[in-house]
Specification:
Keywords: Signal. Pfam families: GO-like_E_set. This is Galactose oxidase. InterPro entries: Gal_Oxase/kelch_b-propeller, Gal_Oxidase_central_sf, GO-like_E_set, Ig-like_fold, Ig_E-set. The protein has about 525 residues and is mainly beta. About 10% of the residues lie in helices and about 35% in strands. It contains 4 helices and 42 strands. The strands form 11 sheets. A 5-stranded antiparallel sheet has the order 5-4-3-2-37, with no helix packed on it. A hairpin with a 4-residue loop joins strand 14 (about 195-200) and strand 15. The radius of gyration is 23 Å and the shape is globular.
Length: about 525
């Protein structure tokens, strides 16, 4: 008995750290499923894994999610011409393969007024590192001129006229009149684009070079359409371009005369790469949040800062916001129906040291509160989308590793509002709405706020069009809610939107799809 007791004591002592870690994990798992915990922090669930190397993700007007991989950052796939796209149905939790006619890897995308997705650019050739190059020099990725539209009805890609300039890592933004602007990227020789701007016409499905618009941006610049029609460059970007702070100056770009109004005040402006940008809700307030970020290139520098700018001010300037819990690159940021913002994932280094943390920003108090911790690390090549049921779906991640690992599991976050009681049910709403008009919706509960949220199209920490627009309530009685639709097309561009009715407890309805024409 003495010998056995000594043996057991030695086993426990030798495995103490493991036992403590196991116990801690078990307690965390138990705690995360407690009702009070979920009401304040929400809950994460891993719901699927179909093996798709999603580089781009877009929520379609059908409620399905387009996961675009192309060659998926895999040289072997590229050499074999193995380009893939998957269509995920979040309700049925099923995946459908979509024929992909070109390497969509690292293209740009934006929604057209009819809800179709325009995708332009892609990969012509993979990079060659200096150690593998015949001339001893590094050769960068090279861009394509290919341009396609994805049609959610047919669930197929449709060819358009080509871009004028080949692009890899470009940004696309849709303007109030439906025209799409394309900027930046690496060209067919792997050189940074020197300010060539081109415009896409949905009517003719053609691209036209705009010789009077010249603006050099780093690749994947974060651009947002402001209420006055200008494009706001937050200063955030991903990938390539000059390292000098002056060449990454935030500001408002006027497409009427090619002028650029600098926006100063961004803290730590030298580490603005792989940062997040979000137009805070409601969009009428014109406040933009800059989130975290890192050093230029493959440096390990990262930041926990946030900063906020009011674009409606005569001289907009950033002011410091609350810090995140941890410094990180590649933060995922999604605006929610109750006007809060989920900020999740990221890593403390360049494609490494994933941060399994999440928090929720509250614009009314300018503060963060903790959210439940995700189970899956997300850094480079990850995407975040708000779903019509009010949850947030997260895809991808491609940390540096010897075998070029790619995370293919889908994790879904259920925000705290989904654990706070019965949800409003919208029983009637117009399918088509017009700017400047009054509309009526019928809700099972009184509405505290009603929001139109544009679906996201996310890649490389960039989602140029995600926005939540308030529909002011003018009257409600007997379950009918009368709402005003904003007149400004820069604020509310034509597209399909998710209409959410939120009650006074902050609980949103399941979204109803409506088209703003």
């Amino acid at each position: 008995m003495v010998q056995l007791s000594v043996l057991l004591a030695l086993i426990i002592a030798g495995n103490g750290p493991f036992a403590a870690s196991w116990a801690s994990e078990q307690y965390a798992e138990w705690q995360s499923n407690q009702p009070d915990y979920m009401r304040t922090r929400g809950h994460w669930d891993i719901v699927a894994d179909n093996g798709t190397r999603s580089i781009h993700a877009a929520l379609l007007r059908t409620g399905k999610v387009l996961l675009m991989a192309g060659s998926g950052n895999d040289q072997a796939n590229f050499d074999a011409g193995n380009f893939t796209t998957a269509l995920w149905d979040p309700v049925a939790n099923t995946f459908t393969d979509v024929y992909t006619p070109w390497d969509v890897f690292c293209a740009g995308h934006a929604f057209l007024p009819n809800g179709n997705l325009l995708i332009a650019g892609g990969t012509k050739k993979y990079e060659i590192l200096a150690a593998d190059s015949p001339d001893g020099k590094k050769h960068e990725y090279q861009g394509l001129k290919d341009s396609y539209i994805f049609n959610p009805d047919t669930e197929r890609y449709e060819k358009t006229a080509d871009l004028v300039h080949a692009r890899w890592y470009p940004t696309l933004v849709t303007l109030a009149d439906g025209t799409v602007v394309s900027v930046s990227g690496l060209d067919e020789n792997g050189d940074i684009d020197q300010g060539n701007t081109e415009l896409f016409s949905p009517a003719t499905r053609t691209w036209q070079d705009s010789h009077y618009l010249k603006k050099i941006f780093p690749t994947y610049p974060s651009l947002l359409l402001a209420a006055d029609g200008r494009l706001f460059f937050s200063g955030a970007n991903a990938g390539y371009g000059p390292a000098e702070v002056a060449d990454r100056q935030p500001g408002l770009w006027n497409l009427a005369d090619n002028s650029f109004q600098p926006v100063n005040g961004l803290p730590e402006p030298e580490i603005n790469e792989t940062a997040g940008t979000i137009l805070l809700a409601p969009a009428q307030d014109q406040k933009v949040m800059f989130i975290a970020g890192g050093g230029v290139g493959d440096t390990q520098a990262a930041s926990a800062r946030t900063a906020i700018v009011d674009l409606s001010a005569p001289e907009p300037a950033y002011v410091s916001g609350p810090n995140l819990t941890l410094a990180k690159r590649y933060p995922g940021a999604v605006v929610l129906p109750d006007d809060t913002v989920l900020v999740s994932g990221g890593s403390s280094g360049y494609r490494a040291k994933d941060s399994l943390t999440a928090e929720i920003y509250h614009p009314d108090t300018n503060s963060f509160t903790p959210a439940a911790d995700p189970h899956v690390g997300r850094d480079y090549h990850s995407e975040y989308l708000l779903l019509p049921d009010g949850r947030v779906a997260v895809f991808g991640s491609n940390p540096l590793s010897d075998d070029n690992f790619f995370e293919t599991r889908v994790e879904v976050y259920s925000p705290p509002y989904l654990y706070k009681g019965e949800r409003p049910v919208v029983s009637e709403a117009p399918t088509e709405i017009t700017r400047g008009a009054a509309i009526t919706v019928k809700s099972s509960q009184p509405a505290s706020k009603v929001r139109l949220i544009r679906p996201g199209a996310y890649t490389h920490v960039t989602d140029t069009e995600q926005r939540s627009v308030a529909l002011p309530i003018t009257q409600q009685t007997g379950g009918s809610v009368t709402l005003e639709v904003p007149e400004n097309p820069n604020l509310l561009p034509s597209d399909w939107y998710m209409l959410f009715v939120t009650n006074d407890e902050g609980v949103p309805s399941v979204a109803t799809w409506v088209h703003v024409g």
